[in-house]
Amino acid sequence: MKARIENPAMLLPDAVKAINLLYKAAHSAGVPGSTLELVHLRASQINGCSACVDAGARGARKAGETEERLFALAAWRETPYFTEAERAALALAEAGTRLADQSDPVPDEIWDEAARHFDDKQLAGLVLWLATTNFFNRINATTRQPAPQNWG
What we know:
Elements: H1 8-11, H2 13-27, H3 33-47, H4 50-62, H5 67-72, H6 84-97, H7 108-117, H8 120-143
């Protein structure tokens, strides 16, 4: 697949500045980096963003994530590999990504379970990171940004 245009965020320098600030804010909220990696990868899987799935899996592996957990991520509910806090973050990520799938996109049960494991600052970081991930997924899908082909 060939991209329709270069990634729009790279064509507009002010966008890169804003994206870097969002990244920094989300990653400074106190949520474990591995949890943010899993949230990014799961949302990207749902959205079918090949570039973000590729980058997310590679980033998670580089951060120490195991193959076993990465292979099982799409079926996280049926596996024993994830902590209760990670499960809460993944449920929030799925609900926040699939907004049109139900009348109450993020039900209280999902939010309350996430709030059991994360304080308000961490929840803000999770939500901001999920929004940033979905932002990139939509840019990449719209412009058909491919996954890199020569990682070596």
